[in-house]
């Protein structure tokens, strides 16, 4: 059984040396590719470019140098084309605007030409004749005539109702108070207070003959 090393003493072990592994490179494929590129055999063939005759100096045209302004004669064509294009765009815009204005106008004219539908007027029923609730021969304040005189004369025959009252044929406030007094004293309830209606007339005529 091995004894442990004493403290402070180095431990003796075999030293490991690095191992280098050499692997041969596969250069056969690279050499074959290079060989194919250098050989003239293949699907392509060399074609010689045709050489034409050199042109004369009159066939060449000198280009204007950079930065030089073109003369007005040369600039006229470009300005003319731009102006024509602008006029065409403006004319198209005006035409579209005119069409947009005319279309609603035509619809409005057609609507204006169409006569509006006339609705028949509702049938109006003549108002019913208003009848006095106190009777057809009712007399009230403001009335005048021979019937008022007959009323005044009959009331003067009833004691303490219309004593020394006028018989001028006018239904005034004094006569209204006399009629109301007669209705109250004799219990007449069918007519308005102070109004000489059917019930008051019937009772007064029965008492005065």
Automatic annotation (TrEMBL):
Transmembrane feature ranges:
82-103
Database matches in Gene3D superfamilies: PGBD-like superfamily/PGBD
Q: Where is this region: Disordered?
A: 37-77, 107-146
Residue ranges of domain Peptidoglycan binding-like in the record = 144-202
Composition-biased stretches (Low complexity): 107-116, 126-138
Q: Indicate yes or no for the key word Membrane.
A: yes
- Coiled-coil annotation reads none
Q: Which UniProt keywords apply?
A: Membrane, Transmembrane, Transmembrane helix
Query: Which Pfam families does this one have?
Result: PG_binding_1 (PF01471)
Q: What's the protein name?
A: Peptidoglycan binding-like domain-containing protein
Give the organism, scientific name: Streptomyces aurantiogriseus
């Amino acid at each position: 059984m091995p004894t442990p090393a004493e403290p402070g003493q180095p431990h003796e072990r075999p030293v490991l040396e690095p191992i280098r592994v050499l692997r041969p490179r596969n250069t056969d494929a690279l050499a074959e590719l290079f060989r194919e590129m250098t050989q003239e055999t293949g699907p392509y063939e060399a074609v010689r470019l045709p050489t034409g005759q050199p042109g004369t100096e009159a066939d060449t045209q000198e280009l204007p140098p950079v930065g030089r302004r073109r003369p007005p004669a040369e600039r006229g064509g470009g300005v003319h084309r731009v102006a024509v294009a602008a006029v065409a765009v403006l004319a198209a815009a005006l035409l579209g605007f005119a069409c947009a204005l005319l279309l609603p106008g035509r619809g409005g004219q057609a609507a204006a030409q169409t006569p509006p539908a006339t609705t028949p007027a509702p049938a109006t029923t003549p108002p019913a004749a208003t009848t006095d609730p106190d009777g057809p021969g009712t007399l009230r304040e403001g009335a005048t005539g021979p019937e008022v005189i007959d009323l005044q004369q009959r009331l003067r025959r009833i004691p303490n109702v219309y004593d020394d009252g006028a018989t001028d044929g006018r239904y005034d406030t004094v006569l209204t108070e006399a009629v109301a007094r007669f209705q109250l004293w004799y219990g007449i309830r069918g007519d308005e207070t102070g109004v000489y209606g059917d019930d008051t007339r019937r009772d007064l005529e029965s008492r005065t003959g």
